[in-house]
């Protein structure tokens, strides 16, 4: 008899192959997505006429498992933030993560979500919906007819019917909330990794406090002690922690601009700012910036070559009239502005890496020469507290009559 072929191997005759393990880099997020998507696929099959009595068990089992995985992902991410803040746990990660009990996982998150209100507040909106799954402490109520003692799962819980309509809507609410929280936790982990926080104050708290403070020159006024008392009461912190917060704000490039202590990054003259903006606007008048498919279709090869040469000449002329340091600075602002998860504290490192890698000046110019690139440069300047440069560019843009095209979305920056 011929030996059965293993499905867990790659074969030349395979038509569809799934990549897993070292080959696919599969992690809990991807596995969670698989279980979640299978729920919607199976529900759609029910609405197409397949037996709901047969499919309800795999539907709820897969839903429950995707929720369980989501909670474990959240716990793991919260623990990572706790480690950064030197917060100790009452139990080991293994004890909390290797359980199927959703009620216990829910409690674990609530034990530690106070590490940041941006975790606590959205999770409290989700938590009440999880109670539907507390009945299944071992995760087998929708795997088998009965438990190990022979007790019928559904009969023991007094369940004789399940509304797929209600289940579907509640499941959507749960998973959309958990998915958003997982995404937010990735951002929070990156934020805390920067190291800008105190015992009770997050980086976001420090940013909010900075915006509520008077100018630094006015801190000796008689009203300032009352302002500090209000902050202490609002955030429930000690005067010592507030002092640490104020030190951070004064020394942080992004926060200090709120108290009129702008810390200029490098030195870019008005002439260089003017030259850069003029170059962007003159360059934008050319309909073809590169040899894209669209340009190839719009022009014959001779015309296209002429345009590309004109662009190259403009680029070289601009390069000769502006220093490497200014180009690298503008590119650093562009990188900070383009990436929401990049923080102002990383500006110096970004600049140093550009200089260290000796990036080709012309290639750097290519990245910042279009109008949308200029917008990201503005985002970066705003994010990094470069008020002078930001205002100078805005004034020049205003003279072109295109201010509305360069409106800054504060939500993106924050």
Walkthrough of the structure:
It is a single chain. The chain is mostly helical and 414 residues long. The protein is built from 21 helices and no strands. It has helices at 21-24, 28-47, 52-84, 93-97, 102-112, 117-126, 153-156, 164-194, 203-212, 224-235, 239-251, 253-256, 270-284, 293-298, 301-320, 324-338, 347-356, 361-367, 371-383, 387-399, 410-413. The radius of gyration is 28 Å and the shape is globular.
On the 0-100 scale, what is the average pLDDT? Answer: 89
Give the count of helical stretches: 21
The number of strands is: 0
Rg computed from alpha carbons, rounded to a whole number of angstroms? 28 Å
Outline the biggest β-sheet.
none
End-to-end CA span = 67 Å
Helix content: 55-70%
- What string, H for helix and E for strand, traces the elements in order? HHHHHHHHHHHHHHHHHHHHH
Strand content: under 5%
The assigned structural class equals mainly alpha
Shape: globular
Low-confidence stretches: none
